[in-house]
Every structure is written in structure tokens, then in C-alpha cells.
Task: inverse folding
């Protein structure tokens, strides 16, 4: 499953110049580029930019927590936040991971000149918020709604 433009909070239509992208390395970000795709990582978090036909870069994966080198999605299940892997596995989020995501997000915004607004600055914004507990309504079984699977213990 490919994650593209999950939420609009990062103004994913913004375009960035080559110089802005190249400057990220000097700010201690790990920047890897291949075939017009730029992966940016720091603090076990990451984001992705893709080169447009005009030669500028557009965000295709907003800042997220990385697990085993893969992008995850943050899910607020009401009672707890989880990370969803591309395989649909869910993992409880640790407070250190959320702190690192916030730090990564703030530093990347500053480096690219993207403003931070109040609702984003007060905490983590999630890709999904599904936790309706009213039986029969969408979201009454959160795992099914987001396609999450429990880990099977052996």
C-alpha cells in the first residue's frame, strides 16, 4: 500500500526549490535521492518529496514515524495512539516517538520555510481519528475501519 498525501495539514501542494531540498543535509537531515524521489530522515522519522515535471519538489509523504525503514501512519483510536504499518499491523506509539515526530516536523518546517499553525503546534496530528463506540455506526469497530490487524503472538 502506498501512502500519498494523507492529510492536508502540511500544505502538500507547496512546491520546494532544489536549493531548499539540498540545504536539508546541512541541517543534519539524512537526505537520499533516487529517480526524482527524495527521502528525508532524522530522529527515526521521515518524509518524502517527489520532483515535479517543472523541476520543483512536492511532498508526497508527510512527516511520520519510521519503523524498519518504512513510513507509518499515526492513528488515534480514542483510548490510545497507534502506528499502522504498510502491511496493516498496528503498534502502540511510545511517547518518545511522538516527541521525535514533533521535533522532526518542526525542524523540517523551519528548514523548508513552511509555517506552523496553532492546531499543529499543540500536539501530534493523526492520519486517522477513528474511535466511534456507538454500535452500528461507521467506526464502531476501529480496527476494521482502518484495516488494522492484531499481531499474532507465537
Result:
Amino acid at each position: 500500500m502506498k501512502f500519498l498525501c494523507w492529510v492536508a495539514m502540511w500544505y502538500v501542494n507547496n512546491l520546494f526549490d532544489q536549493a531548499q531540498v539540498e540545504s536539508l543535509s546541512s541541517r543534519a537531515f539524512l537526505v537520499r535521492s533516487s529517480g526524482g524521489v527524495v527521502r528525508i530522515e532524522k530522529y527515526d522519522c521521515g518524509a518524502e518529496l517527489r520532483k515535479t515535471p517543472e523541476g520543483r519538489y512536492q511532498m508526497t509523504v508527510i512527516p511520520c514515524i519510521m519503523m524498519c525503514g518504512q513510513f507509518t501512519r499515526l492513528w488515534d483510536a480514542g483510548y490510545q495512539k497507534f502506528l499502522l504499518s504498510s502491511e496493516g499491523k498496528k503498534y502502540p506509539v511510545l511517547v518518545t516517538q511522538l516527541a521525535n515526530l514533533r521535533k522532526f516536523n518542526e525542524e523540517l518546517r523551519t528548514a523548508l520555510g513552511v509555517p506552523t499553525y496553532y492546531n499543529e503546534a499543540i500536539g501530534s496530528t493523526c492520519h486517522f481519528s477513528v474511535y466511534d463506540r456507538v454500535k452500528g455506526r461507521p467506526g464502531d469497530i476501529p480496527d476494521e475501519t482502518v484495516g488494522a490487524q492484531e499481531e499474532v503472538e507465537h
Notes: Helices lie at 18-22, 95-112, 118-121, 142-146.
